[in-house]
Amino acid sequence: MKYIPLGTAGHVDHGKTSLIKALTSIDTDRLPEEKKRGMSIDIGFAYLDFPEEGLRVEIIDVPGHERFIKNTICGMAPVWGVLLVVDAGEGVMPQTVQHLRVARAFGIRRVLVVLTKIDRVDSQTVELAKEEVKELLEKEGMQAFSFYPVSSIRGEGLEELRRGLLGYAKECYKNREEDFFRFYVDSAFVVKGYGTVIRGSCVSGKVEEGEILVLEPVGIKGKVKKLQNHGVFVKEGKAGERLAINMPEIDHRRVERGFLLLKEGQLIKSQRLLVRLEGKAPKGVGYLFLGMREVSFRHRRVEEDICLLSLSEPLPAVRGDRGPLLDSSGSLTGSYEVLHPLPLRFSKKFIKENLSLLLERPEEYLLLEVGKGGLSLERLFSFFGKPVEPSRIKGVKVGRRLYHSSVIEELKQSIKRELEGRGGFLSLSELRERLGVSKELLEHVLKDMKELTLLEGYVLDARRANLEELEGYRRLMEMLREGIREERELLEYAQYLPLAVRRGKAHSLGHYLYISDQLLREYEATLRSLGREFTVQQAKEKLRLTRKYLIPLLEYMDRSGITRREGERRVFVKWSS
Ligand SMILES: Nc1nc2c(ncn2[C@@H]2O[C@H](COP(=O)(O)OP(=O)(O)OP(=O)(O)O)[C@@H](O)[C@H]2O)c(=O)[nH]1
Ligand SMILES: [Mg+2]
After folding, report:
1. What is the mean pLDDT of residues 84-88?
2. pTM, to two decimals
3. Residue 421: is its pLDDT beyond 80?
4. Which residues have CB atoms below 5 A from the ion given as ligand 2?
5. How many CA atoms lie within 13 A of 248 on its CB side?
6. Is 71's C-beta closer than 6 angstroms to any atom of ligand 1?
7. Which domains does the chain have, with CATH numbers?
8. How far does residue 2's CA lie from ligand 1's centre (Å)?
């Protein structure tokens, strides 16, 4: 079954509650005070099923009186669409406009318009009201799904409306089941034999019996014992659905309207939000609604319509959340849209420079913002309010974190600078400390820097470092100075060998034989004492080497241009007598 939450909106007495009752047979005015005054005070709930479509429209009926605007805002917070109810005789009135603005603030752009009480007016008056609403919608930058003239008393137009409602509900449907769970609490009470029941709207994700939920902002945890949707037990609840959640471990007196139920470890709360504003930002302290939660804030302007908000309380917002802004007198001044629910960099300069990234490629903004600290998957997911495939993100993945490629490049430059300042030689732990990066990241970057070598807990630039400081290197060089060595004799020092060769301190003669540069020079000097030319036999006697070592040595001397072979003889290329 699909659940689609829709709300009513409209001026006081324009017939919202009567309309819902006519459609659903449910009276959403439950309070004695409401009955007595014939007026809605608080939000009320109903539903309308379309069984053939597998669809339930969840209805939240809001009060129209100006005094209860905050209840109205709470009622509209979880809905995906709005039935704008206008008395055909009275036409557009102040709360018609105000409610429309609240709906817009929550991101609703198309409303279904119901013109009520047509039994009391002629068709021309109905037409007039329709024109008035059309004008208003245009002025507010909104559209009508369609217009439905009805009489809730006599039943005229209700069938057409019901059909229209189905089309509208389908249009409003949002697939949010895979998002993280967020539940807007509107009340809590105790049921005998069950304990605390928390009632509200599931706006995203799913919840099952037996799960542990966290009540925010108080951070109390509790287990879901039972779940109901409109008085019927269900095993699972999901996005769009009205739910009563039985959580006996939570004291109902600790629960307030506006609280949220979340799942642990999913959404990260933040006391700063980076938002786009529409309308005016209240001067000084303002108030915003995230869902049904009202918090105060101060703002700092970054650009014309981009502001950084400091909230009085951390909120678990996600990218794209919207809601109304109020000033201290409670009047609606505008709305916000969350661009970044958990910003880390607050300087105007940083935000301005990277604004287009934040708008178009937010993942990249996140990567830049975290820098060498790296982006955790938790942060990434929390930003979007749902898990996203990390491979979709254009970043370098190291362990469980993602890094911007420019961060990796900068790190390489810093490593080079550090090494230069230290003669090409630095202990890994010191380097890590100086750069302030994780071991994982440093190792990843170093692996990428082919010119560097990791040895004995040191990073070294083979061309610059003083290798003599390394024990293994010293021992290798000693061995190579004593005589020509076969590679298998040097296995223990295998990692130092290429370093020594690259620096010209040792030579590879081929045939898996190595010699130190010093010894090579000594052999050369000894051979020169034989004169400009010499034979293999002479060399063998002079150097006292077996042919196994001698031939590769002489061939190497030929290859490296020290000698030249002429028949049976070898001639020194350079000779000064
Ligand atoms: N004749 C006629 N009267 C209606 C119709 N719809 C509502 N009314 C009457 O209008 C009055 C107000 O109706 P409600 O449904 O309570 O209006 P509301 O919009 O819910 O009012 P608030 O919740 O206080 O904003 C009641 O006396 C209704 O009986 C209608 O279609 N025809
Ligand atoms: Mg009402």
Report:
1. 98
2. 0.83
3. no
4. 16-17, 40
5. 9
6. no
7. 2-172 (3.40.50.300), 182-254 (2.40.30.10), 270-372 (2.40.30.10), 406-465 (1.10.10.10), 486-572 (1.10.10.10)
8. 30
